[in-house]
Write a structure and sequence with these properties.
This protein has helices spanning 20-37, 62-73, 94-102, 118-123, 141-155, 173-184, 213-219, 241-248, 252-256, 278-281, 288-307, and strands at residues 51-56, 77-82, 108-113, 129-135, 162-166, 188-192, 208-209, 222-225, 263-265. It is globular and about 55 Å long. It has 316 residues and is of the alpha/beta class. 45% of the residues are buried.
């Protein structure tokens, strides 16, 4: 892949409309940056003299820390914004908040918000590059990219591979980004979970629905297991946690019945004993800690490629 290749968009708002070439380019550069973060000296001057604002209007730990570490590894100046400690609580609007931050000459904005579409809203109104770090139940593109990068590392080319997304599909932004991104990489995607947590129109995205988890795991090369998002549920979507775990929880007993065990991913945080048992989460079948490490490399790649559209950046 040419070293001077560039992304076709100024922003990363989601993967639905991102071409396969851009996804491959991000994964290509993520490989370079993973080498960087495993060197004794982990910092490169790629974003030196640029400022990145992290706007987190929704609670997050892993995503926020991963972006912040990626930015610092790239030598960017970093401004962190949290709605819980900001003037938003005093009635300031999103427009006002962003206008004030951009008055500080911010070059890139990473935003996480509980409302779908906020990243697109900003992209239409501000000159900075926008990275969507999760908007409502819409998309979470960098999580899907790091999931794909982790799969690629562990099982090789994804062309023709089979991935099942398990669990709370209805409330998940990770599921949508995974579906859009993986299909563009030639992956066959299926979902499995309680019927109440599967969107009715999911088949319109070219996704197969596999009702029984054992059948789904037997079919799949990779199982990406999603967290049950209790905080987004306004009613009971299944009888009980115990019943959910019995039908859709991944246990070592369940895996031992398979002819071949799929790679297990989970975007976190894990509800241990619900989606996965600790025995599975901590087993060699799981690549959950690989996902965490790869998140920094993938986010470095995204930030670097977006910034390089404005001016040439040095990788080393």
């Amino acid at each position: 892949m040419p070293q001077n290749a560039k992304l076709q968009s100024r922003h990363l708002l989601g993967l639905q409309h991102v071409p396969a070439e851009d996804i491959q380019l991000i994964l290509h550069w993520a490989g370079h940056f993973k080498e960087v973060i495993n060197r004794p000296i982990k910092r490169v001057p790629s974003l030196r003299d640029l400022t990145v604002a992290n706007l987190f209007f929704e609670n997050s730990t892993r995503t926020r820390l991963s972006f912040e570490l990626a930015e610092k590894r790239l030598s960017a100046d970093v401004v962190n914004f949290s709605a819980s400690t900001s003037s938003v609580k005093k009635g300031e609007t999103l427009n006002d908040t962003v206008s004030n931050i951009l008055a500080m000459k911010v070059d890139l904005v990473v935003i996480r918000h509980s409302e779908a579409g906020v990243a697109h809203f900003l992209a239409d109104r501000v000159p900075a590059h926008i990275v969507n770090a999760g908007d409502g139940t819409h998309e979470h593109p960098t999580q899907a990219l790091l999931d794909a990068f982790t799969m690629q590392e562990r099982i090789g080319s994804l062309e023709g591979k089979k991935v099942v997304i398990v669990g709370d599909i209805l409330h998940s932004r990770v599921a949508l980004s995974n579906i859009f991104g993986l299909q563009k990489l030639g992956v066959h995607v299926a979902v499995s979970g309680p019927s109440t947590l599967i969107p009715r129109a999911i088949s319109e995205l070219g996704v197969e629905v596999i009702d029984h988890l054992d059948d789904a795991l037997e079919w799949a090369d990779v199982a990406n297991v999603l967290r049950v998002q209790h905080e987004r549920m306004d009613r009971a979507f299944f009888p009980s946690i115990r019943e959910y775990h019995k039908r859709y929880g991944i246990t070592m007993e369940r895996l031992n019945r398979l002819k071949q065990v799929p790679l297990i991913l989970h975007p976190g945080p894990i509800n241990r004993g619900v989606e996965l048992t600790s025995e599975v989460a901590d087993s060699p079948y799981a690549a959950i800690l690989n996902q965490v490490e790869n998140g920094v490399a993938v986010r470095m790649a995204v930030l670097y490629l977006l910034a390089s559209q404005s001016a040439p950046q040095n990788v080393v």
